[in-house]
Design brief:
The chain is an all-alpha fold. It has a domain at 1-22 and 38-96. Helices cover 62% and strands 0% of the residues. It is built from 4 helices and no strands. The protein has helices at 3-21, 39-58, 68-86, 103-118. It is globular, with a radius of gyration of 13 Å.
Length: 119
Amino acid sequence: MPKTEGARLFREAWIAGVHQHFPGEPKAGYITPWGDTPQWEREAAGAVYDQVRQFIAISGGHAARLSREQKGRFVATCWTAQMFKHFENPKPGYVADWPDLPTWQQETDADIFEAIEKA
Protein backbone atom coordinates (compact mmCIF):
# COMPACT_ATOMS: atom_id res chain seq x y z
CA MET A 1 0.00 0.00 0.00
CA PRO A 2 1.46 3.42 -0.90
CA LYS A 3 2.53 5.55 2.05
CA THR A 4 -0.25 8.11 1.59
CA GLU A 5 -2.89 5.37 1.57
CA GLY A 6 -1.43 3.86 4.74
CA ALA A 7 -1.43 7.22 6.48
CA ARG A 8 -5.00 7.78 5.39
CA LEU A 9 -6.03 4.32 6.66
CA PHE A 10 -4.45 5.20 10.02
CA ARG A 11 -6.36 8.50 10.16
CA GLU A 12 -9.65 6.90 9.16
CA ALA A 13 -9.21 4.20 11.83
CA TRP A 14 -8.45 6.94 14.38
CA ILE A 15 -11.60 8.88 13.46
CA ALA A 16 -13.75 5.71 13.54
CA GLY A 17 -12.30 4.82 16.95
CA VAL A 18 -12.93 8.28 18.33
CA HIS A 19 -16.55 8.12 17.15
CA GLN A 20 -16.95 4.70 18.75
CA HIS A 21 -15.08 5.16 22.03
CA PHE A 22 -14.95 8.87 22.92
CA PRO A 23 -17.41 9.74 25.68
CA GLY A 24 -19.54 12.66 24.51
CA GLU A 25 -18.70 15.05 21.71
CA PRO A 26 -15.05 14.82 20.55
CA LYS A 27 -12.94 17.89 19.86
CA ALA A 28 -13.03 18.95 16.22
CA GLY A 29 -9.30 18.22 15.87
CA TYR A 30 -9.88 14.58 16.81
CA ILE A 31 -12.15 14.04 13.82
CA THR A 32 -10.64 16.40 11.24
CA PRO A 33 -11.05 14.79 7.82
CA TRP A 34 -7.94 13.73 5.89
CA GLY A 35 -8.08 16.68 3.52
CA ASP A 36 -7.79 19.11 6.44
CA THR A 37 -5.24 17.14 8.46
CA PRO A 38 -1.97 19.08 8.96
CA GLN A 39 1.07 17.82 7.05
CA TRP A 40 3.02 16.89 10.21
CA GLU A 41 0.10 14.72 11.33
CA ARG A 42 -0.14 13.04 7.93
CA GLU A 43 3.58 12.25 8.11
CA ALA A 44 3.26 10.92 11.65
CA ALA A 45 0.29 8.74 10.68
CA GLY A 46 2.24 7.34 7.73
CA ALA A 47 5.27 6.61 9.88
CA VAL A 48 3.23 4.76 12.52
CA TYR A 49 1.36 2.85 9.82
CA ASP A 50 4.73 1.75 8.38
CA GLN A 51 6.01 0.73 11.82
CA VAL A 52 2.94 -1.39 12.52
CA ARG A 53 3.14 -3.04 9.07
CA GLN A 54 6.84 -3.82 9.59
CA PHE A 55 6.17 -5.17 13.08
CA ILE A 56 3.46 -7.47 11.71
CA ALA A 57 5.74 -8.60 8.87
CA ILE A 58 8.77 -9.40 11.03
CA SER A 59 6.59 -11.31 13.49
CA GLY A 60 5.85 -13.75 10.70
CA GLY A 61 2.14 -13.12 11.22
CA HIS A 62 2.30 -13.92 14.92
CA ALA A 63 1.52 -10.36 15.98
CA ALA A 64 -2.11 -11.44 15.65
CA ARG A 65 -1.58 -13.32 18.94
CA LEU A 66 -0.94 -10.09 20.84
CA SER A 67 -3.62 -8.88 23.20
CA ARG A 68 -5.60 -5.75 22.29
CA GLU A 69 -3.69 -3.93 25.00
CA GLN A 70 -0.33 -4.94 23.53
CA LYS A 71 -1.47 -3.83 20.08
CA GLY A 72 -2.68 -0.50 21.42
CA ARG A 73 0.49 0.05 23.44
CA PHE A 74 2.57 -0.47 20.31
CA VAL A 75 0.60 2.15 18.37
CA ALA A 76 0.75 4.56 21.31
CA THR A 77 4.53 4.17 21.68
CA CYS A 78 5.11 4.69 17.96
CA TRP A 79 2.87 7.79 18.05
CA THR A 80 4.75 9.20 21.05
CA ALA A 81 8.03 8.91 19.15
CA GLN A 82 6.46 10.88 16.30
CA MET A 83 5.35 13.61 18.71
CA PHE A 84 8.94 14.00 19.90
CA LYS A 85 10.06 14.07 16.27
CA HIS A 86 7.62 16.79 15.21
CA PHE A 87 7.54 18.95 18.37
CA GLU A 88 10.45 20.25 20.45
CA ASN A 89 8.28 20.38 23.58
CA PRO A 90 5.09 18.39 22.97
CA LYS A 91 2.15 18.81 25.31
CA PRO A 92 2.26 16.22 28.11
CA GLY A 93 -0.97 14.66 26.86
CA TYR A 94 0.65 14.03 23.45
CA VAL A 95 3.39 11.91 25.03
CA ALA A 96 1.56 10.34 27.96
CA ASP A 97 2.48 6.77 28.85
CA TRP A 98 -0.08 4.03 28.26
CA PRO A 99 -1.52 3.89 31.80
CA ASP A 100 -2.09 7.65 31.68
CA LEU A 101 -4.05 7.60 28.41
CA PRO A 102 -7.83 7.73 28.65
CA THR A 103 -9.61 4.45 27.96
CA TRP A 104 -11.15 5.80 24.75
CA GLN A 105 -7.69 6.52 23.38
CA GLN A 106 -6.33 3.11 24.39
CA GLU A 107 -9.24 1.42 22.62
CA THR A 108 -8.80 3.62 19.55
CA ASP A 109 -5.08 2.79 19.37
CA ALA A 110 -5.88 -0.93 19.51
CA ASP A 111 -8.48 -0.43 16.76
CA ILE A 112 -5.82 1.25 14.61
CA PHE A 113 -3.45 -1.73 14.96
CA GLU A 114 -6.26 -4.13 14.06
CA ALA A 115 -7.31 -2.03 11.05
CA ILE A 116 -3.73 -2.13 9.78
CA GLU A 117 -3.61 -5.90 10.38
CA LYS A 118 -6.68 -6.35 8.21
CA ALA A 119 -5.42 -4.12 5.40
